[in-house]
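Progress report, Aim 2. The chain analyzed during this reporting quarter is listed below.
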Amino acid sequence: MKFVSTNLLKQFALGAICISLSLSCYKSVLLQPDQTIDMYFQCWENKNINGINKLLTSRHKIPNRMWEFEKIKYVKLLSKSDCTESKKDLYLNYGNGKIKKPFDISIYCVKFEFRYKDGQCGAMNNGIHEWNFTIIKEGNDSEWLIDDWGY
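Predicted structure tokens for the chain:
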């Protein structure tokens, strides 16, 4: 009997979820907070605006937002770690959590590499970035959605 590695199964599951996010007949797939981060970066790398929008809270779904996909060479997720305990109070007391209290919250410290195509430039610098991603649930049966990101 052959055994399939856990990592391979995770990659297959994320691939299946990514496909479902890009379909117009999208039905909700309840991702865990860390899977939401993985999926966001997969959609960003694939320049999938519909997939990205399905992973964001409503305040970030801005019509005609400039993602500059045509300029991007690649985006690569390097690492992520749960930093909820050390960052939660900042979001709840000074961030959007002060305005609208989430049902549940998870915050990840994310390291990723970003590169523009040759000769292109934009709002970000080429190189490795470390951002915090705040993922929230608005209710018990809600999806985990990205509500905030940045330094």
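The mean pLDDT is 84. The chain has one domain: 6-150. These observations will guide the mutagenesis work planned for the next reporting period.
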